[in-house]
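## tool: complex_structure
## caller: assistant
## args:
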Amino acid sequence: MTFELHVDVERWRGHLKSAAERLPGLVPVIKGNGYGLGRDRLAAESAALGADTVAVGVYAEVPEALEAFDGDVMVLGPWRPFLDGAAVEQALADPRVVHTVGRVADVAALAERAPGARVVVEGETSMARHGFDRHELAAAVAALGGLEVVGFAAHLPMTGSNLAEAESWAAALEASQLETTTFYVSHLSPGELGQLRERRPGLTVRPRVGTSVWLGDLGALDVRAKVLDVHRISRGERVGYRQRAVTRDGYLLVISGGTSHGVGLEAPRSSAGVVQRGKTLAKGSLEAAGLMLSPFTVDGRQRWFAEPPHMHASQVLLPASATAPAVGDDVRCAVRFTTATFDRIVLD
Amino acid sequence: MSPSPVTVRTITREEHLDFVAGRPSVSFLQTPAWAQVKAEWGSESVGWIDASGQVVGAALVLYRQVPKVRRYLAYLPEGPVLPWVDAGADLGAWLEPLAAHLKAKKAFGIRMGPPVVTRRWHAATVKAAVADPALGTLGEVPADVNDAAALAVADRLQDLGWRRLATEGGFSAGQPQYNFWLPLADADGTPRTEEQVLAGMNQLWRRNIRKAAKAGVDVTLGGRDDLEAFHRVYVETAERDHFTPRPLSYFLTMWDALTGEDPDRMRLYLAHHEGDLVAATTLVRVGTHAWYSYGASTSAKREVRGSNAVQWQMMRDALAAGATVYDLRGITDTLDPDDPHVGLIQFKVGTGGEAVEYLGEWDLPLNRPLYAAFTAYMRRRG
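## result:
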């Protein structure tokens, strides 16, 4: 059983290289499942790109990153006094780790806990996730004690242009008492980053980027699932764990790739327009009937699940009118890379 | 923390003055004398009385009548004087008896300006922000001091049903939300020396002060009779700077009211050069707080810098009188270099002081239909 990711290495690395060139000062973000590619692999690629710093999401990801990467490791999630465990202890003790702080009380607590630790001060942007209100920055500075500020961070939303907000934070940083000129920013296009640099010559702007670097050229990534079995089925025949009756004559395909690979796992989608909402509605009614579109493309089209995916394989319906694949054939699968796990990653 | 008050009642002028005298400072808009200046409004001194009969809080209430109805807006400019921050969750116990008292006096609503400073920006910060095109208003600039406890008062007022009045550019509604202060003492209360104050100013200010001294500008204190001369220059200033001057009678009334309360509460400063009056200003002081209130200068002989000389003399006198704050009063919140108000900020920033933000003005409607009619009427008046 194999559910594999094939990477066109030459093309992928070419994209990584050009992305890094368009994003000077890049801090690659390596978090979660490593965008489906694996965190260790991304750490190695980051080093090859010449990055001096990588960013991880949470403290649990720190030990592995320190192992896989020789430079600095920045933790995107803010340090909080209630965090504990071996990974946090290791991070607090290692001078290569850069912590994020977003609350005055946390700054004071960290200063006491790990004097000399290096921190990035984060501003609360319109994301409203975490960080300081700009008027709290003076209080944050006052609480720093022996902490070393290596930069200021603004995590921006993904919609529309964020240049105005980024610049407002850059100006706030320059007018603040924070003694740093390094500005870490996310979700700005290379063009916007260029404009920001031009308008803020006093700052070193460093983009923190994950998705658009690692998954910026999906054409280099190819997800292949094996056809494990092909059964002829007739209308009314009962199949699967749930013994549901099929509605048409055709084929039942057993394909590698199930919930453990991230197949059939969905996050709420941001439906932009009326058409998208309509599609969601239509899909919703099919889902209500117990049917769901699978991510597998067979004979040129995405096919329906016969029943919810199993842990390692899925049962998929193929109408009689379609050409059935042979056992052992590969079919394409569209995955959400941030939730995907592959049995094997093959560098082609 | 002060004990929770039990009652609010009218207090006499003497009780009110006693209370003011017992505090380091209150706004001059909250002295009984200010009622005499605003004689076209009704007025009342109101006190908060604790269980032992002590006055523990006070307000000067000005009553503004609604046209054709015997109902009033009760206005407490830069007041009331209460332990705002220390009251904590008990703030309602202070404000509810006030509302009941004023309602009985036929008020349809209350407007107040808690004298609570929420944020401060140092001169260097404001200067850097004016120079930065990405920062359009003071609110966008990280404050150098952020008083969380003072800011929490706003949440409590909201919970108690008070509404914050919107300010447009910081100047349109009542008293300005942003003011400029030159501290005359350090945070721990140690008075600054004249040399320290002077050293805090920008080069232009220091140069102009020196220039005036070299040119032989002579700054003297004037009396009531000199207000006429002040007013002549003040009218000239109004024409030059395009604002509507107040009549001489306003300044005479102010003089009589303020000096009647305390002979040193209001001062008139006159700057002469070779016998010519080149600048004149008024200074008001209550306890440790001194306000530069009105200023005027002639168009002729600007090069002798009479206005800097007169400011410097007021600052030194305020310092000598034990003031801890020299208040240059309102600024707008705009930092747009194209806004004409920005020149005023830059002039004040040159003193090396700090911009301070107040909690702003707040309304409590007591009679909703009348309050709604009044606010609509005020909007139409613009």
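## assistant note: Chain A is about 30% helix and 25% strand. Residues 274-288 of chain A form the longest helix (15 residues). Handing back to user.
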